[in-house]
Design goal:
Order of helices and strands: HHHHH
Largest sheet: none
Helix content: over 70%
Number of helices: 5
Number of strands: 0
Structural class: mainly alpha
Radius of gyration: 21 Å
Length: 119
């Protein structure tokens, strides 16, 4: 896939893809004879994973460390697992804070519904 196709498929900008490659989230992407990036299946699988993790608000730093360990192979399974556990726990904490905010919003909306209904 060319970069424009990857942009369309994954909803990331070309600049983001180049940035991910530059910081090591993506391996250097193979280029065709004209020097144009040619994303393969493995590249796309990594893009999909990174996009999913960023959607869960996993930090760039944690992702970089995870991908470096991933590239080192199965000898790093436990270290990769630990990163994922830490990021999952952080995501759960964020969800709890978000849920508390939603609960407060629901409470306030219900309160205003009552006030408006009384008028």
């Amino acid at each position: 896939m060319r970069i424009a196709e990857v942009v369309e498929e994954y909803g990331l900008s070309a600049d983001t893809l180049r940035y991910y490659e530059r910081i090591g989230l993506l391996r250097p992407v193979r280029r065709n004879a004209s020097g144009v990036r040619d994303y393969g299946e493995e590249d796309c699988a990594r893009i999909s994973f990174v996009k999913c993790m960023r959607g869960a608000n996993v930090s760039i730093e944690a992702l970089i460390e995870y991908m470096q360990l991933f590239d080192e192979g199965d000898s790093m399974l436990e270290a990769r697992r630990q990163i994922l556990i830490e990021q999952r726990d952080a995501a759960r904490e964020r969800l709890q804070r978000i849920q508390a905010g939603l609960d407060r919003l629901d409470y306030k909306i219900a309160h205003y519904d009552e006030l408006i209904a009384q008028k």
